[in-house]
Amino acid sequence: MSSTAGNLDDLVEFYLVATAALLRRQEVAESVVEGVLRAVAWGGARDVHMILALTTVGSDSSPGFHEVLTSRLGALAQATDGLRGELDDDRLLSAADALAGVAALGEELGQPDLAYNLYEASYHFRTLCDAPARPIARKLRELSNPANVDQYHAAIWRVAIEQLRHSCDAMDDWTETLDSIELALNCPVETDALQAQLCQQLKRQLGRTRGTKVEELAPIFVLQSPAACIAAEDRRQGAAILLEMRIPDKAEAITLEAMEMLAAVRAQAAFDDMRQRLSAKAPVHPQLSWADASLRHERLDGALPIGNSLLVDPARTARFVLDLIHEVGHALALLGSIGAHQTVFRTVAHYLELLLIDLGGVADSRPGNVRALAALPRGECAAAAASLQLAVATKATIAQAVWTPWLEGLSMYFELLCDPRQDENEIFSVHACIRSLNDFHPVTGERTDSQTHERWFMDAAAERFDSFVSAALRSESRDAHVGYFDASLGRRGDSNALGYLVVRSVVSAWEETLQTKMAPMRAAHLLLLATQVGTRDALPDAAGPSEEYQRLCSERFIDWVRSLAALPKPMIEDLMTPVGRNDAGRQWYWDGAIPKLAPNDPEAAEKLGLEFSSNLENMLLRTALLDAEGADAQTAIHAEQLKDLFAAYVDWNRLLPIGRDLARLLLINGSAAVCPRTYIGKVSTVSGSDYRDSPRYAPSMWRLTGGKAEADRLRRLCGREGTARVIATRVLDLAGHPQAPADARTSYTCFFLGEDFARVMVWGPSEDVSGTHPEFTRILRQRVLQPPLFADEQDTLGSLEFLEKRWLNAFPEAATNGPQASVEPVAISREIALHAAAAAFAADASGDFRAVYEKAMGSNSRRHAVARALYASGLDEEAVLEPELVGTKLAQYLFQGAQELRVRPFGRGA
Amino acid sequence: MTQLITALSEDLIDAAFARISILPEAGEVAGGRLYRLQVPAVGVALSEAMEKIRSLLKDAGKSGLEAVREKLRTVVDFVEDRAQKLGEWADDLRQAVLAKIHELMQHTYDLVLGSLRPRIKLVDTLLVLESVNLSCKLVFSGSIDVSLTRLCEFTASGESTISAKYTLGTEARPSAEATAIPPAAESN
Prior knowledge:
The complex is a heterodimer. In chain A, the strands form 3 sheets. Chain A has a 6-stranded antiparallel β-sheet with strand order 7-6-5-8-9-10, with helices on both faces. Chain A is globular, with a radius of gyration of 34 Å. Chain A is of the alpha+beta class. By secondary structure, chain B is of the alpha+beta class. Helix content of chain B is 52%, strand content 15%. Chain B has 5 helices and 5 strands; from the N terminus they run βαβααββααβ. Chain B has a 4-stranded antiparallel β-sheet. In chain B, strand 3 (119-122) and strand 4 form a beta hairpin. The radius of gyration of chain B is 20 Å and the shape is elongated. At the A-B interface, strand 1, helix 14, helix 16, helix 18 and helix 19 of A face strand 2, helix 2 and helix 3 of B.
């Protein structure tokens, strides 16, 4: 008790000094300060009132302020009086409250340091009676001084302690609690005694977690806490138990440290699992956004491919690898004209949004800080800009809807049929991208004398990847076919399935032209090439009239598919000729519907490229209704800005982030490691099993160079950024960025924390190139940490529905004579898909085809039978037409005959 | 006292299938993304298995249990084969198939009972349902094989399975309605 009393005296003195300083800074006369101080110290609330009644405080204080000051200091005097004699919780708490009151006043007066001291005193009173103090702890965190590491980090610890106490009381907010504890573990206090005290307080709360959702925290704490918290021997024992090993008798310090790091990483997996359980989200279907080509997949939601995780276990990752092939296929297909048109629309829509933000007079209109407007500003200018924006977004949506069936069909073709073992010469670009996500290949086998080591390794690695994908394809393709055609996918899914039928019939037409069977792997090269560069004239002018856009877009698409199917024999042969492994690759471009070999002469090639990009820029300016030619200076500036924005967007869409995890930064014993998660493991079950039995992620550890100095720097950085996690992702360079350190189709593992920490690695655990390639790092950072304008773009600027609603809210009078009628993308996709399929299979009787298709596909078992027939014919599995389909009109349309399950060539009619 | 017998028709099987949802209906998709509604591997296998079961039950209804014994075997083998291929998801498939068979049993049962008219008017005679006699009981079993065999038995022996006893009612009405046929399902 005596020590408490002693502490108490110190505490009272501490807050009296702070209070006095607060008054002095308000230019209160020294005699008054002394008087108030004495009154507070002796518990004379009435004296406080009397003294202050006769004084003016501060030069420009508001009238109410004087009363507030008087009452709060009066309360403090009363509470101080209560501290004499027998202490109980009530008295301690009223002292804490009175101090918090004065502290809040200090904040209002712009004295954060003194406010901090007063809050700290308040916090101590609360800890003396073990009372919850989360709001006070948050205040301490907010007001603590980053330059004073002890103070700054102690505040982080107090938030963690109070947050945990709150969660244990309320049985809620667990995720926030975990985050605050992680942060505390990364931000130790430098004074050991203070650290030990904070640890003690945290441990007391940890003792209450038994039986809660976070009960694993207690053992994790032993393995990850700062050195001052736990005896070295205890921690080592804990590590040994977790790792199921014995501590060597004469271990060197470095061995022990490695052991402790390893144990901390293992413990992190439990930490991450806990977090995962607490923030369970509905799984997302695999998808790629049109707007900024961002890829989502449930297995990448909080994880990324690292090391050998992609290929390590066929039973678990085969399906996932095929999903990636599908989505990356989309991203590559969008590198061409279809994607370029979308980028034109997107750039103009964003540019107009910036204009609207300007017109609306948003306070902070710096590009890095603006968001999409929730409501449009009024006025003629705004109406014009918003109307153009809506028209542009409508065109974008129409183009997306029209091309969706083809792009989906194309990606299905890559995913379901492309066996890399069928092509011994070239690697398909989609497969090359996926292969770059696997960092190392455990290669076996002997090297022959004629091989260099490098070639031997590359060949063996390629062989391993090829056989993995090949096996995955053989085991998954049948089910995937059935899955795509199953009735539960409803009408939307039909446009994808029809798109696939059209792709198949185009390939069938080529086969007929060549009079020979084509390996899907070879056909895929040509399909992708045609979709990328052969679509230059396949879309109507983006700046053309809105009323005609949908009709033109549909017509051009159908014409394009028709001409693709009808490519003349010599051209298909040329395009299909494989490139030898030591030969230079060839570049193609499309002149109208005719593919031509790009000139070998670099000057001519450059000229061609410039012509292409200047055409696009022209279209961009016309779409934004900017006349760059006869322009005034202001318009010219706008035009330049627009072009810059366009170039940046084109750049970004060539860099595809794969997976994103907030990965824990572990700082143990003066070394640093990042623990990103990979994705092996069971994801969902029909019956629903206990998550604990099936961890979803495998832990992974990435040691950071720089030793203790870097670890200390990162501790501070964590404190300042308020997180113990870095953003970890992998970025695929789809087209070979000019600033990149490596070739196209290389993936980069990236870690970012705020503006001051970046790691970019070309292969798995390799050298960081962020120092040698700062410009590339900057671009990657921008791509990964998107500005708020892009946040949820699919639901804001990328969503026609959002824009329409916003437009009608601002200009209800336009509802009757609005710029255009609403478009239904799902209906457009289905319509164009049926149209294209009718052109493919029933050139002379397209109306009939639709009726036949819809009637036959009304039965789910017939849908399955069609899917199985497509699978068998696509992968040359032996099969005949199933009884369900024999004699049906649909089978007559789709297939050559009952015995020969070949898909009917495009436009050859039944 | 009159005894009427109801028959299990193909329609009844389709109607029972229409009442179970094999996979959750996929929601509508907003624009702005290339989006696949993907049926997971277990879902695909389940969906295929259920189509096979539908065809099996129809055959059983037409030609009796003995005639479909072999087909029944292939369906059970199909499920087991697919389960094996699913690896760690194997049990998910087995359980899902079993659950759907049980659901089917319930719906078939309900439909049969629901199809019996409580009153039948024959010219000017009114018959009122007095009791229903099920000679074949549906047994919920934990085995796919047994459950499916029971369901086949039930559909195959429809005529002898359900008999309903009617007694003369008191009210007489002029209109005449006859047979007790289950409501026709939407044909797919």
